[in-house]
Fold these 2 entries.
Entry 1:
Amino acid sequence: MGDTTMQAAAPARGGGSQTETQHGTHIDTIENVDIVFRAQRRLSFSYGAVFFAVTLAIPASSVWWKSWYATPIWGGFTANYLFVSLFYYVFLWTMAWTYSKQADKLDETLMHMADAAVASADTIGEEG
Amino acid sequence: MGSLNTIAIVLVVGLILFTIGLSIFSRRFTRTTADFYLAGRKVGSFSNASAISGDYLSAASFLGVAGAVYASGLDGVWYAAGFAGGFMVVVLFIASALRRFGEYTVADFAFGRFGSHRIRLVTVVMVLITSMFYMAPQMYGAGTTWKILVGRGIFGMDPYTSGVVVVAAIMMFYVAVGGMKGTTLNQIFQFWWLNFAIIMLVFFAFGNGFSYPAELEAASESTLVNTKVVTVEQLTADDGAMLANAKSVMTAEEFAAVQAAVDAGDAEAKVPVALSAVNKLHETRDMLFNEPGHRYNGFDQFSMVLALVLGTAGLPHILNRYYTNPSGAAARRSTFWVLVFIGVFYILAPIVGLAGIGMIRDAVAGGTAPATADYVNGMLVKPDAIMPTIAQILGGEWLMGVVSAGAFAAMFSTIGGLLIASASAVGHDVYEKYVNPNASEKQRVFVGKTSVVIFALIAMGIGLGIPASGLDQAYPALIAMMVTWAFAVGAGAFVPMLLTGIWWKGTTERGAISGMIVGGGGSIFIIVLNILAQLGVIGKTGLFGFLGGLTFPTLFTFPLALATIIIVSKMDGQLPKNVDEIWMRIHGTAHERHERELGLDKVGTLFAKH
């Protein structure tokens, strides 16, 4: 990689192009983006934890929970069969819908916050 | 070839002509490389979701899921659930970040994120390998479906070869002519056609008195029975254990034919048999249709779930589609609609598999079962043939035609996406970046189209090579198996790199490359061992024997690749100089705010001329 890399111990902070990017009048600073990143990470990994917990609980129950895999509850449906063939999709749809909505809301909040921060900095600059 | 197949063939030919017409129509809207590879980045959520669903639902989903349920009960249902669950990983961790990064391909992401040409080329190689793994079952499906549908070859070729050659030629033409816009339009149409086909099948099943809970109860009353074509040598091995099993399951009349083959003494003679299944998960229990354990033991229950759930996020042709969204939020919305669309499909496919058990048995007993399929003990010898077979039983010629066209639609839409992904890997990632960076727009599009032609020819070669290699004899359900291999390679090669690249700033180029090689290479190594074990080249003992016995390598390769990335990155510590800039590109929103202000985040039309 040669000259395109630097030591992790000395993160880039110096040049303006490294710590902020501008598109039109909209600016991202690394501080704001870190806030966005942490909020997105919290949201994505919380949902991810629930998704993997539920998804892996199904094979775990198939191995260790007899009432789950061997007891018919509606005609030939066991709880296992009913969940994998139907309710798992309802679970996925609910997760995807609520996650998308929360992520959109988070995007909105963070976008407004970023624009407000830049506007505030401009005002201070003009006053200064 | 009777009138039944004639109507089916007419419908399939109609589908092909429509597909070609759509590609020619969309040609006038493909001028730039962004048009050719990304449909101008203006595909709306609903259209994109339909196209992604068409891209995703391949022959394995359309023909394989119902067949897997028919043969394996609950363990087969997991194929459907796992295929759908994979999109949660995409929406939660990858979709919007990938779109915000805003490039063309996965290799572009790797280059932009880690800043080296080396990682771009490694990614290109992995993209091509994964795409070819995924292409192989599609081409094999094309040959076998042609065999069932047409039953004869053209231009002196056998039926299988004819199917492979014809499908490769059609794909070569329509993808090269239509590019991503043509492919997208076709995928949208093909997805809704195959969805229509399966809805019609289920509609006809319920109309013929099918009751989900009652049929499931009936199917689960006694031990699951499987059909298989075996040699006399296999039948009589182990003191004739398999022969005794067949005798206990089959009717006296059917078993007499098996016994006659054994008495004839030709060890290589093949004979279809019905055998009672063994429960691999709970060994003391009977293997019932509604219980787990037919295909997978305890280890594989977990490994299979992980392979399917993680593999989706590692399929290059699916990931490329996320760049066609106008924004990160649109990418999430697209994924939600994909989950709804394919979820409906995957809820219906197992119903067809279950319905087939009673309806095919009754049709065989009543002498009304289609003569184009083989049966033993009232069951299909090849479960993958369940869709066209039950269509013929339930709805006659026309429904058979609708379903056959659906099968080809599933293959076309997936092969189209794979050809675009492969072409963009070579045309965009290699030619435009290294061979001729100053190429004109016309030259770039020409190289993209040439790449499509070359990869279609390679796919044709792979399709033709499968029977010659003996793979079709080594694996009874080869289509589903080969798709699983593609998922495993994608899950090992790309998902750890993407997850760490997006969510851990400390990931370095060397770490990512090491992870891709360990994850992708390790998966390929274990798959090759599995193939060699199935072909009898290596034994079942020792380390190679153990690894060769793994049906799904992901439980090993994914965590190993993830650990490799983390350890090597920690040891390496060489972050890109502009890591903050890269971080702002992945997680920042200034670009989207700017586009929104200018109204550029709006969905455009696929028919815009530039």
Entry 2:
Amino acid sequence: MKKKLIAIIAITVIIVAAALLFFQALLVPKYMGEAFKEGALIAEYYDNAGDNDVLFVGDCEVYENVSPITLWEEYGITSYIRGSAQQLTWQSYYLLEDMLKYEKPKVIIFNVLAMKYGSWKEAGTKAEREAYNRMSIDGMRWSKAKWDCIQVSMTDEERENGGAWSYIFPLLRFHSRWDEVSAEDWQYLFHRDQVSDNGYLMKTGVVPVEGEYHDMPLADYTFSDLVIEYLDKMRVLCEENDIQFVLMKAPTLYPIWHDEYEEQVEAYAEKYGLVYINLLEHIEDMGIDWQTDTYDAGLHLNVYGAEKLSHYLGQVLMDECPGLEDRRTDESVSGKWALKVEKYMNRKNALEKGE
Amino acid sequence: MSFTSISFLLFLGILIVLYYALPKKIQWIVLLAASYVFYFFAGVKYFAFILFTTITTYLVTTYMDRNNKAKDAYMAEHKAEMSREEKKEYKQKVKKKNRLWFVITIAVNFGILFFCKLLLIEPFNTWAAGTPGISFLSIGLPMGMSFYMFQSMGYVIDVYREKAEALRNPFKVALFTAFFPQLVQGPISKFEQLKESLFSEHRFDRQAVAFGMQRMMWGFFKKMVIADRMAIAIGGLRATEQTGVAFFVMTIFYSIQLYADFSGGIDIAIGIGETLGIKMPENFIRPYFSMNIADYWRRWHITLNEWMKTYIFYPINVSGPMLKLSLKARAKIGRLGMRLPVYIGALLTWLGTGVWHGFNWKFIVWGLINCIVIVASEELSPVYDKFHNKTHLRDHKGYAVFQIIRTFLMMNLIRSTDLFENVGLYFKNIGSLCWNFNFHILTDGTLGKIGITTADYLIVLCGVIIMFIVSLIQEKTGKSVRENMQSIPRVVRYIILGAFLIIIIVFGYYGIGFESGNFIYGKI
């Protein structure tokens, strides 16, 4: 009798758990539609991990502006961009921690724009921030790094509404999507398409820059202690793993990169002997034309701008990072990268044709 | 820590394991520790209030109990020597001795409650908000104060009246005052109702624990699937004209929300008690099946009404001055005069009930309307009886249904005073039912723009039908659905429960963007 009872309970628990997992798979956002592909980037890394010499971390300034395929084609650099929308400095650190479990690169490049955000409160409304947190964290596989990232990233509202539980069981967060279930949710119930090319999210549109961008002056431009703490952590992590840590600022025009920010990053790089590449100072060298190379009036580059930037950046990296080498003749990677190049070209052609 | 939060479920899970794993002798201590942990989560600053009530309750009850016991011992010893008058005089003397501290304790504790409630209204609220040290009281009452205060003071009165023996252990008094399932919104237990199961030892009873969890699940369903959806719709309707049909729809929505919210919270509280082997009194007996308003108040918020009856209405009715008044009035105006104490008692009781809900004219008016309707229907009952005897309407089944619908609609209107801060606006909107129908809101899409979707309406409709069927089964069989389900094969039963759990998780209103977790009566 007791055995029968235990069996019934066990079967019920299994059925309920399976049903909940099914609903979770159905209701979590898939980020496959054109509007929010950024949300799929973080999870894609795991299919491409293992043999990248350069890893990028940062916000849209990396995943919209740098083309790993160009770096490979022109310099033989194998690279991956672990970028996500509004990725904050501490999230970059935990994503790095996560990646180092899967591979050991020679160079890690951190884009410094996010350093201006001293806390989640400065990086958009709480609703926006929560959405960005989801896009930066949900795609990570479970690890201590993910747990720590959740703890430091959550908004007050997230803490009050289930806290980390909603990251452990995303159904608790996304259950309310039951009345928005679309064909996309069914189509991508158990799989996802690759939306990026090694973390690069390609855009082919052109919206030229018109006029200049201005910002309200800030009372204080000093980076917060939390930002510096995590920048230090990234630097130390790289030192401990014998990886060159490089700082980069993408050349986009907005949000404005103030001189006060620049001075602090330069001082930090000098203090620790780091390479800092501010591409805003090399726009002409790269040949970027703001009439043709941006898809949103200078906020991000399109694929033509990204290719120009990557062409320039590749040379800088080859010059400044002694550990890097041209691997185009390395058979262990060249075959795989040839396929990536093919996919990239197909995607580019398709986008140009408006497919 | 809200009842509907995951941290609370985790807290409860740990408590249940500890409660049954540790020696049974210390079960009540585990409960006290858990109750204080629960209270700490509500805010450390509130702790002083519950501690004060606990300490004063303990001191005065033990003092009175000691005096009462000494009196009993003395009288037993000198039974033969004392005359009737001497005995009476001696009793009076002890009573007087007790009365001083009894009155002080009651006055101070209710004074604190009164003061804290006062700080929630203007201009006191603004003053409190700007006064260091008490500014936190301008936001809301300390958690559960209206409930634990009534429960503790009920116990003090019982000991004073020698209806209950005082607890000698101060920590047991602390547990009786702060027992956490009751802190959010009751039920308000009488000491005699709770003491037996609260302090006795409980073996792990699989059936009882399972029943408790099922009751909790039922509460979560009512609260998270139905009540919180309706709350959004009511919020949306507030932005409309609120007259005519819009007002009527709002009152119906509010009736659904309030019942699902309040009774759902009570289901969770009683369910928690059941998982711990502790039986708490019921607070609802299918109130929307009431045949008249008096019947309704025997089925809705039962424990508060019982408290008011026991500690306010009856004592007023049988007090010396009232008996004298009754005699005098009877001589002058006959039967009506004889009933005068009842009217006064009812009026004071309903005013007290109104004020208990908050210092706001809407609650006073609500109490007065209830009082008038109940007293009028009582006084007119001979007329009704004559009418019914002549027409034999009561013999028709349909008449009972009519009575139920009539009572529901009447209570619907009375209850909706809650929805308006301005009493004048409330009456104006009631008036609009007669001259400003605004039927267009049913067809112009207004109801689709009040924050909930068509799918939400469907969920609420299904939820209400489920609640109705469950109530009907309870009413017909006199047993709970859980008990009725025992006859179903276990596999089917478990699948039903599993499906119910999934429904709550998927269709519940909770998480980011939803104002869930707060119960309407949790703010009182």
